[in-house]
Amino acid sequence: LARLRHDNVVVTYDTGVDGDGASYRVDELAGGEPLDLMRLEDARRGSTARQAARAIADAHTHGLVHGELTSASVLVDEDGRVRLRGLRLPMPDGDDVDAIRRADIDALINLIAGIASPSASPLRDLASGLRRKSPTHAEANAAALDDLPGDKHDGFAAGPALVSAGAVAPAGDP
Question: What average pLDDT does this structure show over 99-113?
């Protein structure tokens, strides 16, 4: 777990089993509060979605999974920096890694939909497109969101990136 050093991931320093057989985990003390989808400022929606998607994509690249991604797994500090907590190594004999990654991607798409403004917005449209296309790699979600403009927008430029990443079909395609 300690091999992933990412600006948007809470670092795990150590895991193990103590002398009494209880497992433990030592994470960095990360600042911020759990993501509150109802109180998220419109100006930060695109950046928040992008940071969460990049954290999951990079975690998957490093062989890590989450398995229980929700808004409570995402910490946001006062500057808008997102920190994902709860990543883990898959169990060698007990986990279906592909199924967990797929669950992470589905949960990420739901999270992006929750981050999008409640009214019609380009980010909400992109989340709907991701649900229809159901990309199989977190990287497709992250690559699409990487092209979002800064915090002042809610996804206006991300449409072409989603099409090029294969996450959604071009307009007019079924």
Answer: 90
